[in-house]
Amino acid sequence: MNTKLLPVSPESIAEAGEIIRAGGLVGFPTETVYGLGANALDGDAVRRIFEAKGRPGDNPLITHVASEEEIAPLITGGVSPAARALMDAFWPGPMTLIFPKSDAIPPEVSAGLSTVGIRMPSHPAARALIRAAQRPIAAPSANRSGRPSPTTARHVLDDMDGRIPLILDGGPCEVGVESTVIDVTGDVPRVLRPGGVTPEMIAKACGAVEVDGAVMRPLKEGEQPRSPGMKYRHYAPEGDLTIFEGENGAVAAAIRARYDAAPDGSAAILALPGHEALYGARRVFPLGAADTAESVAAALFALLRRLDDERVKHIFSEAVDSSGVGLAVMNRLSRAAAFHIEKV
Ligand code: TXA
Ligand code: MG
Each residue of 292-308: pLDDT tens digit? Predict the structure, then answer.
């Protein structure tokens, strides 16, 4: 299959909408990461997503809508006051809510669970695509399973060339990490995956929040995750990644020592902007353009891809403060490191 890469325009959106209606797949930009979309109401179309990504069949997909009216037919049991408050505060935007599903959601989308994740993205191209398709769109991140999520159309092409007919290019994604996944089926909203909407923001909007324990640690032996995605080692660079946590000077000293002990040319350091000088002439990649969690988030996945492209074998990274969006950054970075975190 020949994969077309087209800039977002009324014509390319219309073509993409046609493909979705006909049961095909489209790569498209959202404010978080690029998605790989299919008609969410068509189990056969959704199965093609799993094939194109090489995704395990037990990991459910998020269903994307452009307006609130589209939600009622997809869920059962209505919208709780807490869910209502979150929808009012953060939609459209980088937030996915887990509701009990209706029969309209095929088992391929929910991977056999009784729930469905719903997201209303804010990216104009994503919204235009959902409208053009005239259907809700099921979409995971548009990477091959196990690769970092794509934050540019080029990343999607690198992973999906020959596997899908069309990628819409809307430029780099603003948030850079995937949406915050929040289970709203219980009394207190529970964060299953941190993202651009932070626990602090959630607590402010609806009074209470819980962060699932598996967000910042590996699953225990035999533990059933509330979100199947937690089982998988996502975002894995080819090199081994170690994170160093502690006071700046101590972290830099530990990283310098480990870097110097690695074979020549095999190692690289990930450091917050402004910290480069701590590492002298060693090979440093900045974590983002500015020393803010938002900036680190926006740059993180492109950086992980670059480390693979440059075949870096040993990666030593500074930790990021895990308040605000920093929690999402540390969640992704810790998983990429398979939880190799050294406290110094
Ligand atoms: O920002 C995003 O969320 C992007 C864009 C394209 O919208 N999508 C995305 O999808 O990141 P994906 O499939 O890569 O990640 C979805 C995560 C997975 O960890 C999955 O296990 C979890 O959400 N999830 C989906 N449906 C769920 C459900 N019903 N219950 C629990 N977790 C669910
Ligand atoms: Mg993904």
Answer: 999 999 999 999 999 99
